[in-house]
Amino acid sequence: MNGGRLPLALPALALLWACRPSGCGGPAFPELQGVEVEPASAHVAAGERLHLEAEGLYADGSVRDVTGGARWRTSGAAAVVVAGGELVTREPGTVTVEATWEGRTGRAVVGVEAHAPVAWALELHPTSAELEVGGAVTFSASERLLDGTTRDVTDEVTWASSRPEVGKLLGGRVAPGMVLGSAPGETEVTARQGGLVAAAEVLVARGKAGRPVFPVAVAPGGRFLVDARGAPVRIQGEAAWSLIANLTAAEVDTYLDDRRRRGFNTLIVNLIEHRYAQNAPRNRRGDAPFRTPGELSQPNDAYFDFAASVLAKARERGFLVLLVPAYLGYGCPPKAAPENEGWSAEMGRSSREACLAYGRYVGRRFGRMDNLVWVAGGDCLPQGPLETCSLAVHQGIRESGSERLWTGHWSPNTLSIDEPAFAPAMQLDAVYQYRTPYPACRRAWAREPPLPAFLVESGYENEKVQDSSPPSRKYLFWASLACTAGVVSGNRPIWLFDKGWPAALDSSGTHDMELLGRLFETLPWTELVPSGLGGMRELVTAGRGLPGTADEVAAAATPDGRALVAYLPPTGREPRSVVVDLTVLPGPATARWLNPATGGWVPIGQVPNSGPRWFTTPGDNGSGLNDWMLVVTRPGSPAR
User: Fold this and answer.
1) Is 303 in contact with 283 (CB distance < 8 Å)?
2) 322 inside domain
3) CATH code, domain with 437
4) Spatial contact of 495 and 482, defined as CB atoms under 8 Å apart
5) Residue 416 counted as domain residue
6) Is residue 493 a contact partner of residue 504, using CB atoms and an 8 Å limit?
7) Which has the closest alpha carbon to 154: 180, 130, 175?
């Protein structure tokens, strides 16, 4: 009787199969996007078996094991698949294995060797290292094999430090073999693989001034940042927006080494780039940030692996990275298009759950990196669904356990605290102001309770945006006397690493920042109070220019009068005169003009603390402009 029903069952099964994936009126199956074979590459000895698995990647982000149902085949005579992904090797050679499921094919490459290589020694490179507190060194491990070859096993060995309080191993997928100098002393770093052991001595010395020990925190009083030792950290930064997406690993090294040598200590960087990369949103290796374009819930590990390596390199060199997890784009474009600068269209149409998932992923991958400050936004003040998604990304990063500080980069001419939904989360106040950053910095400094105020963006060198004009140094020097936590400069082509960026590393804007950094190293900058704020008297009483305009003189001094600094922005080529109230000084002081175009000094001489005094600039500073910096210091005024 059963035999009489079987022929009727076969057409029914065939009909069910034919209905996939549409379902013939039933619920739709998610679309198959691709098939992956794991492992994607492997080496085995002839005669051994290797189990391969096939996974189907679906449009809803799900991954399904299709090993048993896939059609397997091999090319070459070195091996054969018998069933269910079981590869039986025959002879030395290379074999390509393919698994096909529903019209999609995944591949793996397997090298079949004559015999399994045997390791007889384990080595570390370098064999020893010296570094400073806060610095880092990355060791690699390799096996020496009996056939005379070597094999990199950095990711396979077990790492250990004999004194982790001196040299701490960061470990993990991001930085295997990386040792952070935590305190002065010596430690032995070991790597173990089977019965083999290799060791290297690491000597950690006290860090140089200006090299922070991460993580940073807000100093008591809220005016600036301090490192893990409590040492003040002044932001001396540069816009490197496309660092992760548009440079090779070697180019990253070139850029970071140059900027470190020139005294930069902070970079603002996009984690994912929508437009400004050679093959955006892919990086130079060809890795896309998402497995399905624009789907935030489907991050591609390969892309973020490279991003992690870039951030680790920045950390090794002492850089604080202001990391934008999802740059929104200038003007918050609502419709998806390749020419959009940012991800606002994709984020605005994404579900809150997808945005939250992306935030959690980013937090898990990068939240424990201690040289980061998170930056919400990106040239956009989000509203509606875009704001909802941005908040979800922020929440996801927080939920992952990341304890790093947060700031915001919104639309031009805003402060971080100007986005109401994000204001309670802001721990640094980033000033984004083009033509007149000094008044905006004063507004940020005057906020109660105080937050570290720094200039995150103003007029970039070689760019004209919103009436910004050269020289770009005027925005930096001007802002430094109210955004007392530091400044971030910008240059085109450096910020997007466009054609000609290596030559631009030696631009006039770079020299301006070097000069500004050297100046503030000689000043008690942590104690500077802007003129007319925080109980400081009005320091410039005549010739100040109109408040809020491009010719306004910026000034600041320490409450005890050890230092007084004023910047006179360019108004032409002729000498310019101002009256400065010197009664803030406790006694006679030395006054000088700093030429911001050349770095040279013009002495004024000893000045008494007997009330208002006229000061007249030398005029043209050699660049066709008349901007100068007045520096008045008391003898023995130490820098902070």
Assistant:
1) yes
2) yes
3) 3.20.20.80
4) no
5) yes
6) yes
7) 175
Q: Report pLDDT for 352.
A: 97
Helix (H) or strand (E) holding 448: none
Residue 88, domain CATH: 2.60.40.10
Token digits of residue 359 = 């935030």
- Domain containing residue 377: 229-468
- Count H helices, E strands: the chain? 11, 41
- Work out how many domains the chain is built from and give that number: 4
Looking at the fold, whether 107 and 126 belong to one and the same domain comes out as: no
Considering the domain architecture, whether residues 385 and 260 belong to the same structural domain is answered as yes
The type of residue at 379 is D
Q: Give every CB contact of residue 163 below 8 A, 6+ residues apart in sequence.
A: 185, 186, 187, 188
Do 304 and 255 sit in the same domain of this protein?
Answer: yes
Could you write out the DSSP letters of every residue in 286-347? S--SBSSTT-TTSB-HHHHHHHHHHHHHHHHTT-EEEEESS---TT---S--TT-SSSHHHH
Domain assignment of residue 216, yes or no: no
**Could you list the mean pLDDT of each consecutive 10-residue stretch along the chain, which spans 640 residues?**
38 40 53 92 83 91 90 84 82 89 92 76 88 79 84 88 85 71 82 90 64 92 94 96 98 95 95 96 97 96 97 96 97 85 96 98 96 97 97 96 95 96 98 94 97 97 76 94 98 97 96 93 93 97 92 96 96 96 94 94 93 95 95 66
| 126 contacts: CB under 8 Å, gap ≥ 6 | 137, 139, 200
189 and 269 belong to one structural domain: no
Helix then strand then coil, % of the chain, to nearest 5: 20, 35, 45
Please state, in angstroms and rounded to a whole number, the distance separating the CA atoms of residues 110 and 132: 44
Burial of 209 (0-12, 13-18, 19+ CB in 10 A): exposed
> DSSP code of 453?
E
Q: Are residues 355 and 429 in the same domain?
A: yes
Residues 195 and 63 in one domain: no
Residue 535 shares a structural domain with residue 569: yes
366 with 253, same domain: the answer is: yes
Please indicate, yes or no, if residue 382 is contained in any of the structural domains. Answer: yes
CA distances from 570 to 187, 473, 540, 597, 621 (A): 54, 10, 17, 11, 10
Contact by Cβ (8 Å): 149, 113 = no
> For residue 257, what are the contacts with CB-CB under 8 A and spacing of at least 6?
317
H, E, C per residue of 102-150: CCEEEEEEEEEECCCCCEEEEEEECCEEEEECCCEEECEEEEEECCCCE
User: Which among 311, 319, 317 has a CA at the least distance from the CA of 238?
Assistant: 319
CATH number of the domain at 568, please.
Answer: 2.60.40
